[in-house]
Amino acid sequence: MKLQEKIQKKAEGYGILTPEFLEGAKFALNNQWINVEDDLPCNHEDMYNMSGSFIYTNDVLALDGTRPVIVYMIFNDKTGEWKWNKPLNIKYWLSIPKLTKE
């Protein structure tokens, strides 16, 4: 059974709260720590920003060992490589969720 099918089956047990359960499950799946060996913020063009000739990504929450830090990646046009803006040992990261505007 696929993960989506398991989530749907579980949600059905919540009756009128099924839509809220599914929304929570979607949020949880979209906001998990990402291993840097699997993906990096620089692989997502929708996260790019530009200031003058500098290209960088949005801030992300990252783990430097077990310590959470806020960092971003910068593109070095001389080497053609992306680097974290701080010399840290980052293993996991996640996008900082956008606040809703009311």
General description of the model:
The protein has helices at 3-12, 18-30, and strands at 34-35, 48-51, 54-57, 60-64, 67-71, 73-76, 81-84, 90-95. The protein is of the alpha+beta class and 102 residues long. The N and C termini lie far apart (39 Å).
Distance between the termini: 39 Å
Secondary-structure-derived class: alpha+beta
String of helices and strands: HHEEEEEEEE
The share of residues in helices is: 10-25%
Tally the helices: what do you get? 2
Largest sheet: 4 strands, antiparallel
Q: How would you state the average pLDDT, rounded?
A: 89
Shape: elongated
Highlighted features:
102 residues, alpha+beta
Q: What's a concise summary of this model?
A:
By secondary structure, the chain is an alpha+beta fold. It has helices spanning 3-12, 18-30, and strands at residues 34-35, 48-51, 54-57, 60-64, 67-71, 73-76, 81-84, 90-95.
Question: In terms of topology, how is this protein built?
Answer:
Blueprint: H1 3-12, H2 18-30, E1 34-35, E2 48-51, E3 54-57, E4 60-64, E5 67-71, E6 73-76, E7 81-84, E8 90-95
Antiparallel strand pairs: 1-8, 2-3, 4-5, 4-8, 6-7
Helix pairs in contact: 1-2
